[in-house]
Design brief:
Number of helices: 29
CATH superfamily of the domain at 2-42 and 295-484 and 636-801: Multidrug efflux transporter AcrB transmembrane domain
Number of strands: 9
Oligomer: single chain
Radius of gyration: 34 Å
Strand content: 5-15%
Helix content: 55-70%
CATH topology of the domain at 2-42 and 295-484 and 636-801: Multidrug efflux transporter AcrB transmembrane fold
Length: about 800
């Protein structure tokens, strides 16, 4: 191994111009790959394309479209449908329907135009509904009579009376409607009196059958359903253009407010992309502060431009490799900058140390690489192994995050290794550094030395306290709340969010939960009856479901699901408005949609519980399948996968790194010791998060493996330096004191740069990234602290007390 480092040192000394030239060429070539980077925003970035959830959602959206855009009309609905506004509304709907990215458009005008054709048929549907309502009322009355202990004859009398009551109420309404209809005049859409009859009861209240579109006289809704299976980018683009279209139209006495989940997704996408560029600027600024204050060496800021070159090379290569950017992977930019500066500090610090002990820059470079090179390579491999454990996640964008961090870390390391060491060699190759001189000790070094002296020899109390805290962390970890409300992931000052709140206040909901029903014929009587009974039962059992729209509603079937004659169903479908029908049943009649409106404040975790209950309570007839589908279900599946794999990914990262270190060192103790302080740090983090009441979110699920992967570097560097000093003949305690003094400054500076990389995310205006940045920065800080407090006494005890760390024979002459 020493021969490899000697050859690399010789390469840098003799071929530095070639290294610079190759770097410039690589920078030009790979920079051209950056425009090839693509932001992956399709649904298969969230859930695996092979999963049943994805396949169901793909098929559902192919038949029934994607997410809805919502247009809230504030103003009297009769004013909206008045002759003065009717032409404008028709023109708006026509322009929207003509767009290839719009699947259907449904509004109060749809109801009105449908009534022109369907009014006679609706009388027959109402009569069928009467029979169902009578039977339901009779059964309820009979059950009540049985409960009161009445005789069978009395039970039947109660049932008959209930039937008569329902019939009487129906007749009263029919009579009132008949009188009103006789006074309406022409049954046309441009007749205001006809619009009033279709939408409102005699007392001016909104008819129940249209309340999914007309909430009250002053608030009504247009639902513009986008085409299915669009990428998030395509959906965001369509949403923005539809908003512009709606805003071009003016309605007298009515205000149109376009919004909806796709508009919110568009804002999130736009803000996150610009936010990450801001985060890169912030992290560079933080690096300057850390390097200036803690890393007191010559050319202390040299790391930054070199790391930025490495980042360009890394992202350019990712472009050529077609590694996608996602809402998760873009957070890797500040992380890679922090990690790259970390590598640079270690090389720079060791070169400075050797430069004061050697007669030439060439000798200093050689000894620097021999001393620090193996340890950093092992740390690099450990980090890469830890990052690759993210591939066990069931969420594709988390797997992409692992690939991006692995590729990026290797490329940034190579850039730092060659460019930084070449630059340091060129700086000193013609200027003498006094042999035997030493860099001035600053407060950081003194703190490290004091910390080492006060912890070595106290391994039992330190480890005992650490294990106690970690055990408490393990116990309280499951009690740390997981925030899964999508609205809490975005800035609360968002104008789009405020508009959604306005729509929600009027409609009671702006979110959907959809079911995909498949059968040989979804219009069969038994399928329709099951659909009506099932949705009525769900509304009754789950108050978070506000209302429902389905084929059963279109056919005016009651909760009892009394079967309708097939010819009546066929005529009702044939005369229904195209957009209303296509939203609920496929053209071939084999597939149907059940659309529940759900309260917006129901978190994704709560939605998962609800979906599980719905799945277990389907009770579909033979030959009929029904499954939740759509983007809402995909979001639930992604959060569930992240939450379930959180601890698994941590244990996998620890296991993979321990196995890798064992293969390198061939000693179990050397494989486990570097990981032990990091596990204590993660346990302490859980305790702090629990005590402070800090919530986790789906993105923090990946923080554990990242901390294990990156934190192990610090323990490996300190352990490596300790054994280097032992090989020089120092006793264990003295060796640890010297190691802590010489590498402590670099570890402290490196740790803070990595913390700064994560901490920069806390300056984002996205709560999702802010919380991720806070949690990971805390974890990383605890990992550095645990390295400096726990590892020194542990290594000395394992070496001096237990004799479990044999020191190999030194191959280079002692200083």
């Amino acid at each position: 191994m020493n021969r490899v480092w000697l050859e690399l040192a010789s390469l840098i000394r003799g071929r530095y111009l070639w290294i610079i030239g190759v770097t410039v060429v690589a920078l030009v070539v790979l920079a051209l790959g950056i425009p090839r980077l693509r932001f992956k925003s399709s649904q298969d970035a969230i859930v695996s394309s092979s999963s049943q959830v994805y396949q169901d959602s793909l098929a559902y959206q192919r038949e029934f479209g994607g997410d809805p855009m919502l247009v809230l009309f504030e103003g009297d609905v009769l004013t909206l449908l008045s002759p003065a506004n009717l032409g404008t509304l028709q023109a708006l709907e026509g322009e929207l329907r003509a767009r290839p990215d719009v699947f259907t458009v449904v509004s109060p005008l749809t109801v009105l135009e449908g009534a022109v054709v369907q009014l006679p048929l609706q009388q027959e549907l109402a009569a069928a509904r009467l029979a169902a309502d009578q039977e339901a009322a009779a059964n309820e009355a009979r059950e009540k009579a049985v409960a009161e202990g009445l005789a069978p004859a009395a039970q039947e009398d109660a049932a008959a009376a209930a039937r008569q009551q329902v019939a009487g109420d129906f007749a009263a309404r029919r009579q009132s409607d008949a009188l009103r209809l006789g006074q309406v005049g022409p049954m046309t859409a441009n007749n205001p009196r006809f619009a009033e009859f279709v939408l409102l009861e005699a007392d001016g209240s909104v008819r129940p059958e249209v309340q999914d579109l007309v909430f009250d006289r002053q608030h009504s809704l247009m639902v513009v359903r986008l085409a299915g299976n669009m990428s998030i980018d395509e959906q965001a683009k369509a949403a923005g253009e539809i908003v512009d279209v709606v805003r071009r139209y003016r309605f007298g006495g009515v205000e149109a407010l376009p919004s909806g989940p796709p508009v919110l997704i568009k804002e999130i996408n736009d803000r996150m992309r610009t936010s990450m560029l801001q985060m890169a600027g912030i992290v560079v600024g933080l690096m300057v502060v850390v390097l200036s204050l803690l890393f007191r060496v010559r050319w202390r800021l040299l790391s930054l431009p070199i790391v930025l070159v490495g980042v360009v090379l890394a992202f350019g290569l990712m472009g050529y490799l077609s590694l996608p950017l996602t809402m998760v992977t873009i957070s890797g930019l500040p992380i890679l900058i922090g990690l790259g500066v970390d590598f640079a500090i270690q090389f720079h610090n060791r070169f400075e140390e050797e430069a004061h002990r050697r007669e030439s820059a060439g000798a200093a470079l050689q000894e620097s690489l021999l001393g620090i090179g193996p340890a950093i390579v092992v740390a690099l491999l450990a980090a890469a192994v830890g990052f690759m454990t993210l591939h066990i996640s069931r969420v594709p964008m988390i797997r992409d995050f692992g690939s991006m961090l692995t590729v990026g870390t290797v490329i940034v390391f190579l850039a730092v290794f060659f460019l930084l060491n070449t630059s340091l060699f060129l700086r000193d190759r013609r200027r003498a550094v006094p042999v035997g001189g030493t860099a001035q000790q600053f407060q950081v070094e003194r703190v490290m030395a004091t910390l080492s002296r006060n912890t070595v020899g106290r391994v039992l109390p330190i480890v005992a306290v650490g294990l106690f805290i970690a055990l408490i962390g393990l116990l309280v970890d499951s009690r740390i709340p997981m925030q899964s409300d999508p609205e809490r992931f975005i800035p609360q000052d968002s104008g789009v969010l405020q508009e959604l709140y306005r729509i929600r206040d009027a409609a009671g909901s702006s979110s959907e939960l959809t079911l995909f029903v498949q059968a040989d014929d979804a219009t069969r009587p038994e399928v329709l009856s099951w659909m009506a009974q099932f949705q009525a039962r769900m509304l009754k059992e789950h108050p978070e479901l506000i209302r429902v729209n389905s084929l059963a509603n279109l056919l005016m079937m009651g909760p009892e699901g009394t079967p309708l004659a097939p010819d009546l169903v066929a005529r009702a479908l044939a005369t229904s408005p195209d957009d209303a029908r296509l939203s609920l049943v496929s053209a071939d009649g084999g597939k149907a949609s059940i659309i529940f409106s759900i309260e917006d404040d129901v978190s994704l975790a709560e939605r998962k519980v609800l979906l599980d209950q719905i799945r277990s309570d389907l009770g579909a007839p033979e030959g009929v399948t029904a499954a939740p589908a759509g983007l809402s279900v995909i979001g639930v599946a992604a959060v569930d996968a992240l939450s379930q794999n959180r601890n698994l990914m941590v244990f996998a990262a620890v296991g993979a790194i321990v196995v890798g270190l064992f293969l390198v060192y061939r000693q179990p103790v050397k494989a486990v010791a570097p990981v032990f302080p990091i596990l204590l740090a993660l346990g302490a983090s859980s305790v702090i998060l629990y005590l402070l009441g800090i919530e986790l979110n789906p993105l923090t699920a990946v923080s554990g493996p990242l901390i294990v992967a990156m934190g192990t570097e610090f323990t490996l560097l300190l352990m490596s330096r300790y054994f280097e000093e032992r090989e020089r003949g120092l006793r264990p305690r003295e060796a640890m004191h010297v190691a802590s003094l010489r590498i402590g400054r670099a570890i402290a500076a490196s740790g803070l740069t990595v913390v700064a990389g994560f901490g920069a995310l806390a300056f984002s205006n996205f709560p999702l990234l802010v919380d991720f940045g806070k949690v990971t920065a805390l974890d990383m800080g605890l990992a550095v602290l645990s390295t400096l407090v726990v590892l020194p006494p542990l290594l000395v005890w394992l070496d001096e007390g237990a004799g479990l760390l044999p020191v190999e024979k030194r191959l280079r002459p002692a200083e």
